[in-house]
Amino acid sequence: MTERAARRLMLVHAHPDDESINNGATMARYAAEGAQVTLVTCTLGERGEVIPAGLRHLSGAALGAHRRQELDAAMRELGVEDVRLLGGAGRYQDSGMMGLPDNDDPGCLWQADVDQAAEHLVAVIREVRPQVLVTYDDNGGYGHPDHIQAHRIAMRAVDLAADPAVRPDLGGPWRIAKVYWNRVPRSVAEAAFARLEDDLPELPFDTPATVGDVPGVVDDERVTTRIDGTAYAAAKAAAMRAHATQIEVAEPYFALSNKLAQPVFTTEYYELVRGERAGEMETDLFAGIAGIAGTEGTEEVAP
Ligand SMILES: [Zn+2]
């Protein structure tokens, strides 16, 4: 017999740092409540721009190795113990921004065969058996090729993992009950940027980003789920700070290498795209899932 947490949440992201920015409060909350939180990151972000002058010599594989350490440090801040690199570290490389020649590199995620890449994720899904999976929308939230590809791979893997005819050698079929995309309601984003405008003189950043720079912003009606992670605001900020090559944090704001100030959202929002919605505005990703909603701790399952 092996012991498995009753509630199991899987998140699929493109680069180290995306998980902390998008879902840091959610991950910290569920980890603290005893759920198993599994992060699958598709690349090590080898083409990311480095913020600290003292680390700008890092690029390619050296930057990837450094970002792997940042990711581990961030996960310690969030209390998340299960972190996987899709297909193993270095299997898929950062594709860089859309339209760059980097996108043509045969080793990059953008060039990956989606079905093949999804099979790596199928193996993890069948091992962990998450009831809930979180990823980006079909535009990757903001059009980055790796984010679009992470979306495609995650959604394909959800289907393949449930199909007993697909790679039975990777474990028995598993159907994920609920799939969510990362969202920010437009009204919440607009209010946060209005506050940012007032706070800007006190911040180490000169220029604010705009609502259009925030991934996953949609009209409020599309948002199905609100996770209040305000109790985990410090953990989220610490996790973001751990990604020091990519993020500069001045709570409750941050900036990427473009130096544009953005709000840190500690209430995180989602759109349910698969599975049954439990109520007008869900406040728990596991809401309505038979047998586990509101439960904590572990259950005994056959290995
Ligand atoms: Zn990213």
Quickly list its features:
alpha/beta, 4-stranded mixed sheet, binds zinc ion
Explain what you see.
Keywords: Hydrolase, Metal-binding, Zinc. Catalyzes the deacetylation of 1D-myo-inositol 2-acetamido-2-deoxy-alpha-D-glucopyranoside (GlcNAc-Ins) in the mycothiol biosynthesis pathway. The chain has about 300 residues and is an alpha/beta fold. It is about 30% helix and about 20% strand. Strands 2, 3, 4, 5, 6, 8, 9 and 13 form an eight-stranded mixed β-sheet that branches. It has a four-stranded mixed β-sheet with strand order 7-12-11-10. Strand 3, helix 2 and strand 4 form a beta-alpha-beta unit. The longest helix is centred in the N-terminal third of the chain and has 19 residues. The protein is globular. About 50% of the residues are buried. Bound molecules: zinc ion. Zinc ion (ZN) binds next to loops.
> What is the distance, rounded to the nearest whole angstrom, between the alpha carbons of the first and last residues?
5 Å
Broad shape: globular
The secondary structure category is alpha/beta
Number of helices: 6
Poorly predicted sequence stretches spanning 5 or more consecutive residues: 293-303
Could you give the order of the helices and strands?
Answer: EEHEHEHEHEHEEEHEEEEE
* Bound ligands: zinc ion
What average pLDDT do the residues reach?
95
**Helicity range of the residues?**
25-40%
Binding site for Zn(2+): 15, 18, 147
Keywords: Hydrolase, Metal-binding, Zinc
Family: Belongs to the MshB deacetylase family.
InterPro entries: GlcNAc_PI_deacetylase-related (IPR003737), LmbE-like_dom_sf (IPR024078), Mycothiol_biosynthesis_MshB (IPR017810)
